[in-house]
Amino acid sequence: MTNPYSAKQWLQLNMQQQGLLQPLASLPKLIQQLSYVQIDSINVVERAHHHVLHSRLPEYSATMLDDAMSDKTVFEYWSHAAAYLPIEDYRFSLYRKQQLQQGGKHWFEPEHKVMREVKARISAEGPLKASQFTHESDTKNGTWWDWKPAKKALEQLFMQGELMVARRDKFQKVYDLTERVLPKHIDTTAPSDTEFAQHLIQRYLSAHGFGNLQQIQYLRKGLKPLLSKTLAQLCEQGDIASFTDSSANTQHVYFYQPTLTLPTAIPNKVWLLNPFDNLVIQRQKLRQWFGFDYQIEVYVPEAKRQFGYYSLPILWRDGFVGRVDVKADRKNHCLLLQNLHIEMQTLTNQHDELNDKAHFVSALIEAINHYCTFNNCQRWQLIQCNDKTIAKMLLKAIQQSS
C-alpha cells in the first residue's frame, strides 16, 4: 500500500488521462475518456462545456458538439451535475432514472397531471422547448425555482427517462420522447448495483488515474457502502491497486489502475482551464495533491471576491501557477484579462527567475491568443496583474502585435 508516485507525478498522470497531453481522435472519444463534460450556463465568456472540450481539441468548435448530439454519439443527462455523456453509458443513467420513477426526488415534487399533459403534447406535436408551453400564472421574476409547471414537468420527465434532449436551441433544451431520440441499438438493460458501482469506479480511475472513495462518489448520495464494498472486491481481484496517504493529517486510501504509465514528456505549454473543468472541479483534491487553493467566485459577493468573477486556473507544464479573471467584450471583440494573478512560489526558479518567467510568458501568450480566437475576439487587453515583470512582458507583446 506504498504510494508509487510523487504528487507531481500524479498530476502528470492526471493530465495524461484527462486528454491534455495528447488530443484524442474525436469529440465522442474525448467525452468517453473524460466520462462526462459538465454543462453550465454562465456566458461572460464561451460556456464551460465548450471550453473544456476546446482545452483538449485545438480545432474544436461548438458545431462539433451539436453534430455529436445530432449523430447520437453523446447525450444529455445528470452526472454529478447536468452533463454531456457518451451514448455507450446510457444504460447506467437508468440507475438514477429508476430511483426517480420509484418516488425519488430531484428538485421538485412531481405534478403527475401536468406531466401527462406535457408528454401528450410532445407525443402529438414532436420536439418542444419549455418556452413553447404557457401557463395562466406565468411571471417573469427571473428565479429558477419559480419555474412554471410545464418546465418543472419537462425536467421531471427528462430526469425519469421518459424524455430526452434532442438538441439545444440557443441553449434552450428541445425535448422529445426517449423512444424517438435514443438509437435502437443502445442497451437499455438497467445495471445491477454492482455493475453501476464498477462503472463509476472504472470511469473515474480511467479519467483521472487515481482517487479515493469520497472523490469517486463525488456529489452522489447513498453510494458509500456499495462503492466501498466494490472497491475492496476489485482490489482483491487485482483489477485495481491502492495506497494509503496521510499527507493531509488524515489517512485516506487511494485507488489507481496499475497498468498506467507516466507520460514521457510535459510540454512548455499553458492551459487556461475552465472553473468547471474535470481536472479542477474537485477543489479539495486540487488543494491537497497539487497545492492549488482555488474557488470560483461567481457565487461570492462582489465585495468579498479576491481574484474576480470568473477566474480561470492557469496550468503551466505540470503545475498550477495562478489564475486570470476573464470577460469577453463582445461588442468590441476584445477579451479582457481583468485580473491576472501569478502565484510566485510555484513559478519562480531560484537559479534563473527572469528566464523562467520568459518561458512562462511565451507559453501564456500562445494560450491567451488561442483562447481569444475561441471566444471570437480579435484582440486581448491586460487590465491588472500582480507581477510587474510579467505585466511588462505581456504589454510589450500587445504593442508588438498591434
From TrEMBL:
Family annotation (Pfam families): AlkZ-like (PF06224)
- Name this polypeptide is given: Winged helix-turn-helix domain-containing protein
